[in-house]
Design brief:
The complex is a heterodimer of chains A (263) and B (368). By secondary structure, chain A is mostly beta strands. Chain A has three helices and 19 strands. Chain A is 7% helix and 41% strand. In chain B, 57% of the residues lie in helices and 6% in strands. In chain B, 39% of the residues are buried. The chains are: A mainly beta (263), B mainly alpha (368).
Chain lengths: 263, 368
Amino acid sequence: MNISYTANENLVTDMSGSDYYTLNGFSSTSSGVAEGQPFAVLRGGVYERDANGKFVLNDLGFPNAAATKEFVGDPNPDWRGGFGTNITFKGITLSAMLETTQGNDVWNGTRGVLNFFGIHSETAIETIASQDLLNAEGSTIPAGTSFRGYEADFGGGPVAVDYGWWTSNGGGFGDVSEIFIEDASWTRLIEVSLTYSLPKNATSKLGIENIQIGVTGRNLALWTNIEGFDPDNNLTGASKGRGLEYFSNPGTKSFITTLRISF
Amino acid sequence: MKKIKYLIVLTTLAVFTFSCESYTEGINDDPNNFGSSAPELIIGQAQLGWMQLAEGNEARVAGIFMNQFSGEDRQYLTIEQYSITASRFNDIWEDSYIYGISQAQLSKKLALEAGNTKLAGVAQIIEAVIYGELATLFGDIPFTEVNNADEFYTPAYDSQASVLAGVQALLDEGITNVEDEPASLYAGNRLSSAATWAEIGNSLKARYYLIAKDYANALTYAKLGISSPAGSLVSLHPGDAPENRNLYYQFMVDEREGYLGATGSYLEQLIDVNNATFSRLLATPGEAARHAYYFDGDDPNVTETGVFAQTSSFPILSFEEVKLIEAEAAQRTGDDPGARTAFNAVRTALAAQYNAAFLLQHLLERLY
């Protein structure tokens, strides 16, 4: 049995006068370096807030985008851990490996775009307006009528969150990405394998030193709050920038069977 | 025999000596240590910086803000709602300062070193117009401390008024330097105008005096500006190469189809004779032809006969603008007849363009 635990605290201390440098990403949301921030920090658009942290609202009761981008997430995990085991009993060996990463953020660009097009499950909701409601485009939804979306209150009374919001600053093509930053902590059962070695007395008669059969499963289980993609994937590959997600393919799950004969 | 031997030895020596020399010549020049291009070439990059400002991203965003365009998809829906963040303008500053102003300044410096004051004058006019546009769009901008990173790592922002005054001074120098050269000088295959560089410089002076609300000077310089429709300074988009195409065409057809429209724009309201939503007090001849030039249905016209066709030249400083500056400045300084004359010059030009010869007479009959 083996257990590992690592924690890495890092901080960028000198940028030679530069505010921010993009390592990877988009003009809306990127992973980069800035003084006083962890390496590969996520930077993107946020809502405008007043001194008390409340949203600054437009005339329709929806939050405005802030003029400048902010640091919105840290893709570095607080800690990582591993757990492995290897049990042998009467020729049967069971080994398993578990890994976990906790406290790392990801920008879920996929969710933003699916919201924009109204094809994320978050948008598949119908509500009957409890009162006359304004949507983000300024249209009025009369009390008692049904609309595709839900009621929300950003601080100025209830409004209708619907296509008007998802296609502007509530969706993936808007100016705000802080709403698409998610906790990408995950725990994965990386590998489980079960092997059986035939008894020596049975094999030696055949002139064979050893026969081993086994079955291995890889990437068998993943526990995470992330929906729709593998949080261990990095959109920009083996790059310095991290924590961005935009329609990347999930990792594969595989099963392997082995038959090993030694002479 | 001895002589022949001498000859052979001498010839061989000579051949080796000279050939070796030419063989090693230039071998110690470091190819990675760039020199500089000719200012006649660099000016082209500065001019592209101006074209980009007049025809690119900033023109599209400003057009949406002024309801001459509409943002219809993806990121442009947010612009349509006037939501804006600082980073949306990063590329304007990059294009203007790095690819426009700094290249104009470099071109000016090299041209002056070579004693080519006319080219320096063209460079000064280009430099001035890019500063002028930035000050107009953004207010206070870096001006006096630009392109001197050793001394000013983060240049200070100068006030809009002082930048516009500096732009006038740059234009004055430029106009003196270009003498009476036509605008075809150093225009390459990028720009075209039948005016002179001095007329272009004066037109720009009028533009920035008008913006600074100095109407007397605006009037003076507008009268010295572009004086005929053929004098309009246009960007050229010849050929089929994707990067040469009209920038609106590139955006609306090649790159981001559907983002930029003109549904319900003021221009559409003004000239769409068939739109019953807006009452028309006065039927204007030529409007149907004008509408057909600007619109394809409700969309900006990107077809071969349209304003945003692939090869359509784009006016970056037009005769019409100069005449309308003259009209406004005249009117504001109390010269109504002068204003009317300038205004009617635009009408005449429009009548000629849209084949509506009776437009002016028609209007005058109705009005007077």
